[in-house]
Automatic annotation (TrEMBL), chain A:
Protein name as annotated: GNB1L protein
PROSITE patterns registered for this protein in UniProt: WD_REPEATS_2, WD_REPEATS_REGION
Gene: Gnb1l
Repeat keyword on record: yes
Keyword tags: Repeat, WD repeat
Pfam families: WD40
WD repeat feature ranges: 177-199, 200-241, 287-328
InterPro entries to which the protein is assigned, alphabetical: WD40/YVTN_repeat-like_dom_sf, WD40_repeat_dom_sf, WD40_rpt
Keyword Repeat set for record: yes
TrEMBL record, chain B:
Major subcellular location class: cytoplasm
Organism of origin: Sylvietta virens
Subcellular compartments: Cytoplasm; Membrane; Nucleus
Hydrolase in keyword set: no
Domain Telomere length regulation protein conserved: 315-425
GO CC terms, sorted: cytosol; membrane; nucleus
One family name in Pfam for this protein: Telomere_reg-2
Keywords carried by this UniProt record: Cytoplasm, Membrane, Nucleus
GO molecular function: Hsp90 protein binding; telomeric DNA binding
UniProt name for this protein: Telomere length regulation protein TEL2 homolog
Length: 328, 634
């Protein structure tokens, strides 16, 4: 007899706007407070204290335009946020400061979240959708120099890039970019040469989100249709479809694989969060708490596995935080 | 009749005279049946025989020329055979020219497509004759594009002319079309306008097909005119005429070369697009390589039985529906969609609540526009309207009929009002679920016995079912016990449906002129009145309705639009079937006699075939009435 799905461990209220992005920062040693960063539609970034379940700070840096991506850069003191005001802001939050140290004007009017990759101490690569419709630009941070621009060939008709993931096989090797496009295809780019390594049509509708597991060279993508697609990368750097899984309701806004690569979570347009086992995509749980589209899911980076959490932000302005499969 | 070969000096004129005289006396079939095959064979290769044949026809006296030429055109097995037989007769002989280029094409229309193919092919085969072909085309296009011709000539003639036009185009070459391109374009535009204006769907379709074909021919590059219509045998046949097959085949309904060409062209495209991208089949996981410990097993799944398809909840109360539909919650399109889908059943389940807000609901539904792309939106809206109307007939009928004659509604909305009234009347007059198909408005009253307008109470139903074997099985329906004030529900409201519609038809408004250019709506109105009359059988108001309808029909009986006339004749039929015989003969004797003479006139002289048929039907009904009266001893 299967147990009914658990309830959220707690729910964070107070953003007063739809929540579009979440990012945990709980890896620091004691006595650091575990934090959760959330970006909302009203342009605020809230820093939630996970001990008191209250907002510690509210950052206003995007002119009240929706914030759809937040990431930390090596710790909770440096934050990167991307908003609909076409800017990416770099924040310095050490010692209680709340200032924007730098910003990049992307001229991108879509919703494609940028992707960060640490390549060396203090040096990052950031992939972001650029001004021109189909291009992805790679910048080096903090210098903000352009490394390359990834342009699909003429007539490829990929559409806008919808989601990006920068990764490298190991420190020092070539950085590679996985990009999901509007026409439903996932493209693997070689960042150094700027060429396409492989292209795979995964969906009939735009790819809304993707995530990739380096160790197993397998990735998963979700779209506005009912199908989740798992693809793998073989030795020749070619993408192949591994498996597909059909959902009950159409529409996935976000997918994320837990850092221990055991489970993954999807955020659905049908207000539900689904948990799957990563190895075989076994459906594990359907968490039905929210009353509107779930926009984002994120796993925490707690060093103690028992404390691991899953957070989901939704259009109903709530952030639900769950403790699920934390014992394994 | 046997020809003597050799003897080249023989005079043929005697034979021509004989031929002419025989043909004129109507014996074309016999003589030409023998002559034409002979001559066709003989003239195939022999030039002398060709000349003989030409002399033969040229010598036929003018007064018999028409019969002979017509006979040849009908009998010849193909255009080139005709060309060999007649030669340049049309160029040399004025009478023949008149027959071929004017009489057969414009003044007659009973000939088959094969005849047209022969004739026009014949004209195209010689340089001298091609100028005639162009002239013929221009004449045909002039007729096709003249609005009076479209309005008054019978459908069969219009079909004939359309076929002739298409065949002409199939013979003309590029430079010839180029030379008169502008005139063709002008005629086409005018012609399309007249055809689309017509109330008869067949004529509209004819116009569309011909215009498309003409546009295809004159615009070889660039976009062509494309209409949306239902394909059927007639349109396919017409389109096939545009392409000439090289064989001697005379049969007009050739396999569709044009369409099969297009089908062939699309095939190569499909496999191409498949090659472009890697839609590779999924690679099955290599079982041997991944034979590691299944550490997923320790993840116990939770109960996911609740995970079902997401259904947006529709409102449960009628007033909530009103709120959603009036757009105060215009953000939530999902809810709007769910409301539209659920509205009909909600209305039927809550008649009391509906009656409180019936007119408001009717108003909202009349103005409701499609916000999102729902399947079957028009039908959903109509069913909701019918539900509201049947739940609270009198106020809603008053509202709808008043709106029919109000300013600022589109023609579509006015016709929707008529459709809703008819569907609701149908539902009220026979207590079963209304059918899903909309009456096209051109419903002819059938001769079968009427359905029982029985009370909804069970005992009556059982008794009547025993009596009338033709009564339909009643569905469970919904309990109308609260409305049990009268047995036949349409009885009390028939007048409210009928009389307001008939009242103001002759008063033009700024945006709506029934007697003027909005004759399509007038046609629909007339058909609606016919149906309402038919459904009003056994109601109290039926005699009054009958009298009013007869006056209405009398006022409009000479209307130029054939769709309207068909409707008027349907009205007479409904009247004769619904009003009890005694009432007709008591109250309406003089009108009936006048109507009878008018019907006789229509039956003989009306250009539209359907009108003539309906008039005949009505006359028969009147005869039956009279017989019934004579049978009853008074």
């Amino acid at each position: 007899m299967a147990l009914p799905p658990p309830d959220p461990q707690f729910v964070l209220r107070g953003t007063s706007a739809a929540v579009h992005t979440l990012h945990f920062s709980c890896g620091g040693p004691e006595p650091d407070i575990p934090l959760l960063f959330s970006g909302s539609e009203n342009g605020f970034i809230h820093v939630w204290n996970l001990k008191t379940h209250r907002v510690d700070t509210a950052l206003d840096g995007h002119g009240r335009k929706s914030v759809y991506c937040v990431e930390t850069m090596g710790g909770k003191d440096r934050l990167l946020s991307q908003g609909r005001d076409q800017r990416i802001c770099l924040w310095d939050l050490a010692e209680g400061r709340t200032s924007v140290t730098d910003s990049v004007f992307t001229e991108h009017v879509g919703f494609c979240r940028c992707s960060l990759l640490k390549v060396a101490q203090g040096r990052w690569l950031m992939a972001m959708a650029a001004r021109s419709l189909e291009e992805v630009q790679i910048l080096e941070l903090p210098s903000k120099t352009s490394v390359c621009t990834l342009k699909p060939e003429v007539g490829a008709k990929l559409g806008m890039p919808m989601c990006l993931k920068l990764w490298q096989l190991s420190c020092g090797s070539q950085p590679v970019l996985l990009a999901g496009y509007e026409d439903g295809s996932v493209v693997l780019w070689n960042v150094s040469t700027g060429k396409v390594l492989s292209q795979l049509i995964c969906h009939q509708e735009p790819v809304m989100s993707l995530d990739f597991d380096l160790e197993k060279a397998k990735g998963i993508s979700g779209s506005s249709e009912k199908v989740l697609c798992i693809w793998s990368l073989n030795e020749q750097q070619n993408l192949q479809v591994y498996k597909t899984h059909e959902l009950v309701n159409a529409g996935i806004s976000d997918i994320t694989i837990r850092p221990d690569k055991k489970i993954l979570a999807t955020a659905g347009w049908d207000h539900r969060i689904r948990i799957f086992g990563w190895k075989k995509l076994k459906p594990l749980a359907v968490l039905d708490y929210h009353t509107a589209t779930v926009h984002c899911v994120s796993f925490s980076d707690h060093s103690n596995p028992r404390e691991r959490l899953l957070a989901a932000g939704s259009k109903d302005q709530r952030i639900s935080v769950w403790s699920i499969y934390a014992q394994t | 009749v046997c020809f003597i070969p050799g003897g080249l000096n023989c005079s043929i004129s005697f034979v021509s005279h004989v031929l002419g005289k025989v043909c004129v006396h109507g014996r074309q079939k016999e003589i030409l049946g023998v002559l034409v095959p002979h001559l066709t064979d003989l003239t195939k290769s022999d030039c002398i025989w060709q000349r003989i044949c030409w002399r033969l026809v040229e010598c036929v006296p003018d007064r018999w020329m028409e019969a002979v030429v017509l006979g040849f055109v009908q009998r010849a097995p193909g255009a080139d055979a005709l060309s060999r037989l007649l030669g340049n007769l049309v160029v040399k002989n004025k009478k023949a020219q008149f027959v071929v280029t004017q009489k057969i094409l414009l003044l007659q229309y009973g000939h088959t497509t094969a005849v047209l193919q022969n004739l026009l092919g014949y004209l195209s085969l010689d340089g001298l004759r091609r100028t005639l072909l162009l002239r013929v085309l221009q004449d045909l296009l002039e007729t096709w594009s003249s609005s009076s011709a479209v309005k008054h000539s019978p459908a069969e003639q219009q079909l004939y002319i359309s076929k002739a036009i298409l065949i002409c185009f199939s013979h003309l070459k590029e430079p010839e079309i180029e030379s008169c391109r502008q005139e063709i374009l002008t005629s086409m535009m005018e012609g399309v306008k007249c055809h689309l204006d017509s109330s008869l769907p067949q004529l509209r379709r004819l116009g569309m097909v011909v215009a498309e074909s003409i546009s295809l021919k004159i615009n070889t590059e660039g976009p062509v005119l494309k209409f949306e219509y239902e394909e059927d045998d007639e349109t396919r046949e017409l389109k096939s005429l545009l392409v000439q097959t090289p064989s001697f085949c005379v049969v007009p309904s050739l396999p569709n070369d044009v369409r099969s060409e297009k089908a062939g062209a699309t095939l190569p495209l499909v496999p191409e697009s498949n090659e472009k991208s890697h839609t590779a089949a999924p690679v099955m996981p290599d079982e041997e390589l991944n034979a590691e410990l299944d550490s997923d097993d320790d993840l116990i799944p939770y109960d996911t039985s609740e995970d079902k398809e997401l259904k947006i909840k529709a409102p449960v109360y009628i007033r909530d529906c009103i709120e959603v539909l009036t757009g105060s919650g215009s953000e939530d399109v999902d809810k709007w969609e769910a409301t539209v889908k659920a509205l009909e059943s909600l209305v039927r389940k809550n008649p009391a609540a509906t009656r409180e807000v019936s007119v408001e609901l009717a108003k909202i539904l009349l103005h409701l526009e499609e916000k999102t792309c729902i399947e079957g939106f028009v039908e959903l809206r109509q069913r909701a309207q019918v539900a509201v109307l049947t739940t609270d007939p009198i106020p809603v009928a008053k509202y709808l009929t008043s709106q029919f004659y109000s300013l600022n509604y589109s023609l579509r909305q006015r016709m929707d009002i008529l459709d809703v009234l008819v569907l609701a009347a149908q539902e009220l007059s026979c207590p079963k679920f209304p059918g899903k198909t909309k009456p096209s408005g051109a419903q002819k009253p059938c001769i079968q016995l009427l359905l029982g307008n029985d009370s909804p109470k069970d005992w009556r139903r059982i008794v009547d079912e025993r009596i009338k074997s033709k009564t339909r099985r009643f569905d469970m329906g919904h309990s109308r016990v609260e409305l049990a004030s009268c047995p036949n529900e349409f009885n009390s409201v028939a007048g409210y449906f009928f009389f307001p519609l008939i009242q103001h038809f002759d008063r033009p408004l700024t945006t709506f002129d029934l007697l003027g250019e909005d004759h399509l709506v007038l046609g629909r109105l007339v058909h609606t009145l016919a149906i309402l009359m038919y459904l009003a059988v056994n109601t109290v108001a039926v005699t009054a309705m009958g009298k009013a309808l007869l006056e209405f029909v009398w006022a409009l009986r000479f209307h130029t639009d054939s769709y309207v006339r068909q409707g008027l004749l349907s009205c007479i039929s409904s009247l004769l079937l619904s009003v009890p015989t005694e009432q007709i003969l008591a109250d309406m004797t003089e009108e009936l006699l006048e109507t009878q003479s008018w019907l006789g006139d229509v039956m003989e002289k009306d250009p539209d075939g359907d009108c003539r048929r309906l008039a005949l039907q009505n006359l028969m009904l009147i005869e039956n009435l009279k017989k019934k009266l004579e049978a009853v001893p008074s």
